[in-house]
Amino acid sequence: MNSDTDAFKGIRVACVELSKTAFLPAESFDPNSLKLLACLKKVEVKLSTYEDDSLSPKFADYVFVPIASLLKQPTLGESQTEYVLLIISHLLRICWSSNGKLPQQLAQQLFPLISFLISPDKENIKLNSRSDEFKHAGSLVLYQFFISLRLQQYHNEFFSNSSPKSLPSLGHSITILLKILEQTPQNNELQLKVLSCLEILFQDIITDGEMLSFILPGNVSVFSKILMKPGRQIHYKVCVRTLEVLVKLLVLVYDDFGLQVQVNELTDIRELNEVGLKSEQDQSFSFNKPIVLLQKDNESDGNTHRDTSWLRATSSQIKIALEAFIPKLLKRNNDIINEKLALFVSTLLDRCAKSLHNCEPVFVSALVNLKRDPMFKLSTHLGSLKKVLNEDLDKLSDIIRFENADKLSVMEFAVDILQKNDDDGILVNGIVKRLLGSMNESIEPPTLVDKKDKITEQSSRITTMVNFEEIEDGNGVITLPRLSKDISVNLQNFARHIGSLLLENSNLSNVIMELISEQVDSPRTQKIVALWLSASFLNGVGRRPKEEEDYLQFGSSVDDSGSVAEEACLTVLEYCNELSQDVSMEIEGNGIKKSDEFAICTILSSIGTVCSVMKHDFQPELIDYIYTITDSLASPSEAIRSVGQSCALTIANTLYHGSVSTMILSNVDYLVESISSRLNSGMTERVSSILMVICQLAGYETIESFKDVIETIFKLLDYYHGYSELCLQFFQLFETIILEMKKKYASDDEMILKIANQHLSQSTFAPWGMTHFDQVLNMLDKETESKDDIMDDAKLLEESKGPSSFQEYFDSKVREPDSDDEEEELEGDSPNNDADQWVSPIPRDSYKILLQILSYGERLLMHPSKRLRVQILLVMRLTFPLLATQHNLLIKEVASTWDSIVQCVVCADYSIVQPACVCVEQMIRYSGDFVSKRFIELWRKLCQESFILKELRVDPTVHNNDTRSIEKRVKFPPVTENALVSMVHMVLEGIKITEYLVSEAVLEQMIYCCIQVVPTEDISAMSLITGDIVWKIRNID
């Protein structure tokens, strides 16, 4: 009571001021008076401070006195009416909210008044122009009224046929709420308040479905419009609340139990007369569908609204509405909306399955597309589920072609439910055939693929570098022709799921066997697609069963599934072998096309999949496929290399503890046999690339197993030296062999130099560093050999000027003694020869390979192919440091190859000059004084014949007065620049061994050329003599 007294005191002044305006006569009353508006605001603000249900109804009677007088005025302004509504909502909240405080008579008077104040016309025309604030006030007062009403004892009778006075206002208030809901799409709070009003009304006040059936159509129409609007206009929370309210309304109206629906299955056509169905057109279903009857039809007294006719008419309208807004909600792809939509559909299937039987396909399709079944209802509607799946399967080609990846996961969800009731596996087997057919229709025909450009290497260098650290274990998805990576991934996931179901039915092997056997006369692309699909089925073998199926896994069933999987794997492997041979024969000599790339990638991926499934049982099968895998690692196609690396890593992780090199070494005998057979068959195109990959992966040890193959390659060089591409590949292989040999035996350059300089005397006191007579004899022998070499060189120069063609040159070189013959002669001269003391860390057999490579390189150095000559010079540059580990054999090879390489140094093609200069630099560095005279002759030849030297000023006496300008040379093109730098480094290396043997003028000439290319500081630091000459050139005119 004290609270009422305090409230009276607080509100009294505001009510008195309001009464002064409210009790004015009609002719003096201004409905839009600002003073009136201010008084209403004061009352509303004061009321907003009171807590819910804190005051008695007497307080409301006191406050309502000026409001009642105000309402008797002819008109009232919009803003004034808005605050009147807010005041009434506050009175409902603080005085009329609990049970017994709102008498039924007062509620019957207040409810139509509220509806009238919000919208005085039944068509709600004026409401359209009202502000959002006004609409919010109207929604709030209705919300508070319904809140108060549901707490009263009479709330169930308030809107019923027993008290019809309130029914017109009920209809009016619902149309008001629906109008506000529809017309305020940007005001989320207002829409949510309206939906809360309707929810209280449908759920707590009107519980009679018969009563709600009258207002159902209008509600469903507005709700559908709301749900169909795009996400930019309707907030997801509004959609969620709309679905919650709509499902409660539909359940109240169409509840099977409330309607007492009886479903009769027709067994005879004559039963149609018994149920009183005169025309098929009156039905929303066909004869094989359930016929819905209502027991109420027979019991009704003519006042029942919901009868069979009503059900037929309204259920079809409900279906139209559902078909309109459900696809829109699915496209929004909002998880919260999807979750609520799934619950919406499942609830209707649970409570209204008979009444809304015509909507069953819509419900089932929605749950399948949502991939959710929260109430496990799909298993009881298998007929509709099969129909939905078949409709999607009929469109599978379009689904694949237009890359509708989500549809594939939807189909997977449907198949997962259906297969639990598919004991004979007919469903899954049928899906396999339709899947293969749809994939073949979707991909590009092979005739079109073959017309595309061949896959070519990006450079003359064969790409063989393999980095397994960047490759993930496991096979990636092979992208199907004309399809994207995403749809290919989804297709494989779908096929993988089908494979797991086939394994559960112990039907995997039979399906794969049938699938492959049907492709005998098919085009190759379709065969590859069948293999792709079969391998995807096998991927499903490793899928774990679901948790609810864990308890059903018995030992015998696991063993059976393992044998079925192994049989399927062997079938796929045999098919891979057959297709691999066909593809290999086709691409030999013709290059790789896009269709070949797809085929090889699929074969490799399938082999990796089989290995993943068979585990250690794959070991005996590997020997048949190790060459195919290794071959892929050297492919010019990046895609094939990538898949090959993934496949190799999968096998290595499964069988060889992750070591690819161990895998190669363990199967090197089979690789030797495969490569030898291909060489003997004339299939030489891929051999060098494969050997390069093997050598890089497993190291130089593999070359020792390939000695016969290497000898065969040397023979092929004899026979096919005119084929530049073949020779180029072989010398690229030689480069790899040399690099791996260096890595194993002499990886440190300092160590090589130390070994190479062992023949030099370190003593400065004894004559020439000699301490006993044997060393004197050795020195005399070396001097004799050097004289013989010089005489041989002179003899060569006195002979004919040279062969007229490369063929004559090569033939003449073949007639010369081979490097291995020289080695045999060297070893067989005398038992006391130094060759008995083998100081090189490189074994004799490996050293012999170096000599052979150098010999064949020297013979082919005058080949017309520039690419081949550059590659040979590169190989020679790598060879000389390794030969230097056995000095007595090095000097023979230097003497033999010097003139050929020098000819490359003075040629007009700078791209050849550059590697030739680097090669000569290496020869000088490791031969030392042995080539000092040859270098002096080389300088004379450079001055007379070299094209590259003409780019520089050679005479130091002919330059302008600014002597420092010689260091500022012109900027050359990259090819010229590289050649000049290499030539200068070669000259500087030669100066180290000849600076005491040439005249100062010649030395000054050499250094003058070098200064124009490299920094003077580098030259000055070489020795005192070079430093003095640099100073002289720069400072003395």
Automatic annotation (TrEMBL):
<dbReference type="InterPro" id="IPR016441">
    <property type="entry name" value="Tti1"/>
</dbReference>
<dbReference type="Pfam" id="PF24181">
    <property type="entry name" value="TPR_TTI1_C"/>
</dbReference>
<dbReference type="InterPro" id="IPR059075">
    <property type="entry name" value="TPR_TTI1_2nd_yeast"/>
</dbReference>
<feature type="compositionally biased region" description="Acidic residues">
    <location>
        <begin position="818"/>
        <end position="828"/>
    </location>
</feature>
<dbReference type="Pfam" id="PF26245">
    <property type="entry name" value="TPR_TTI1_2nd_yeast"/>
</dbReference>
<feature type="domain" description="TEL2-interacting protein 1 second TPR">
    <location>
        <begin position="377"/>
        <end position="624"/>
    </location>
</feature>
<dbReference type="InterPro" id="IPR011989">
    <property type="entry name" value="ARM-like"/>
</dbReference>
<dbReference type="InterPro" id="IPR057566">
    <property type="entry name" value="TPR_TTI1_N"/>
</dbReference>
<dbReference type="InterPro" id="IPR049362">
    <property type="entry name" value="TTI1_rpt"/>
</dbReference>
<dbReference type="InterPro" id="IPR016024">
    <property type="entry name" value="ARM-type_fold"/>
</dbReference>
<feature type="domain" description="TTI1 C-terminal TPR">
    <location>
        <begin position="805"/>
        <end position="937"/>
    </location>
</feature>
<feature type="region of interest" description="Disordered">
    <location>
        <begin position="800"/>
        <end position="839"/>
    </location>
</feature>
<dbReference type="InterPro" id="IPR057567">
    <property type="entry name" value="TPR_TTI1_C"/>
</dbReference>
<dbReference type="Pfam" id="PF21547">
    <property type="entry name" value="TTI1"/>
</dbReference>
<dbReference type="GO" id="GO:0005737">
    <property type="term" value="C:cytoplasm"/>
</dbReference>
<protein>
    <recommendedName>
        <fullName>TEL2-interacting protein 1</fullName>
    </recommendedName>
</protein>
<dbReference type="InterPro" id="IPR052587">
    <property type="entry name" value="TELO2-interacting_protein_1"/>
</dbReference>
<dbReference type="Pfam" id="PF24173">
    <property type="entry name" value="TPR_TTI1_N"/>
</dbReference>
<feature type="domain" description="TTI1 N-terminal TPR">
    <location>
        <begin position="8"/>
        <end position="373"/>
    </location>
</feature>
